Amino acid sequence: MTAAAEGSPPLVAGGIRRKTLLQSESAQGLALISPTFLYALILLVVPILVVFAHSFWTQHYLTIDHTFTLENYRIALTEPIYLDLLWRSLYVSLMVSLFTVVLAYPIAYFISFHGGRHKGLWLFLITIPFWTSYLLRVMSWKVILGYNGVLNSGLMGLGLISEPSTALLYNTSAVVITLTHAWAAFAILPIFVSLEKVDRTLIEAAKDLGDGPLRSFLRVTLPLSAPGVISALLIVMIPTVGDYVTPKLVGGKDGVMIANAIQAQFGKAANWPLGAALSVTTMVVVSLMAGAAVFLIRTAARLAR
């Protein structure tokens, strides 16, 4: 008892010193991340709050009435033109995400499992198209899909059509095709990283237990690479909803998306509060759709195991 009582003060003192050390390390960590946090707060959170505040105000010519109102959200959620644009944007975003992932997965799988020592070279080749401007790539697809384009020339050479056609241009399909190509590399890379982390011994064990190539892929490789698939879907889905350059160049009247309407409200229409309400509504809907996609993919991966 005496020895224990005599040993208590050093233990207490050691605990106090350890606690003080941890507090000082925490303070140093906070000091290190504070500039970055403030930088992100100023550039990301503050603009969103400004847009959110504008959505409850009213535009009167060149002045803004700061009286609280929900009229902008009523217009955004009830006007058929804005609802149609929103659903079209969600449809295009979903189609682009699905097509991009479906096309990107085999490429990422080939590089990861069969690339050997040339994996770096394959990844380098994938990034080559991104050395050119995004606008130039969109204009290239406008040439391919449009009048006197490469596709028309090929079809005419094969005798399948007699006159050039613009059927593949200025519609929703043209927007989906162009965006799928534009975002392909952004889907390949996260899927490749996820496939690289898959333990090959698990695949060999599945084969030793009687699984064929397809069954081992569905039960081992695909579920383990689900994080990469989810990342690819989110990376492609979220930005494509807000794309307004591609629909304007290759979509025409039938390919206009919600971002074009938002850009018009902040431009010629000069109705910032309505544009802000459309922006907030789109952000909320896209967040819900992205959350639903993540939930469904994780559920499917869990059931596949």
UniProtKB/TrEMBL annotation:
Keyword Metal-binding listed: no
Lineage: superkingdom: Bacteria
Gene Ontology BP term (one): transmembrane transport
ABC transmembrane type-1 domain residues: 86-293
Ranges annotated as spanning the membrane: 37-57, 90-111, 123-147, 167-195, 216-238, 276-297
Keyword terms of this UniProt record: Cell membrane, Membrane, Transmembrane, Transmembrane helix, Transport
Membrane topology: Multi-pass membrane protein
PROSITE patterns the UniProt entry points to: ABC_TM1
Subcellular compartments: Cell membrane
Record family assignment: Belongs to the binding-protein-dependent transport system permease family. CysTW subfamily.
Name the UniProt record assigns to this protein: Spermidine/putrescine ABC transporter
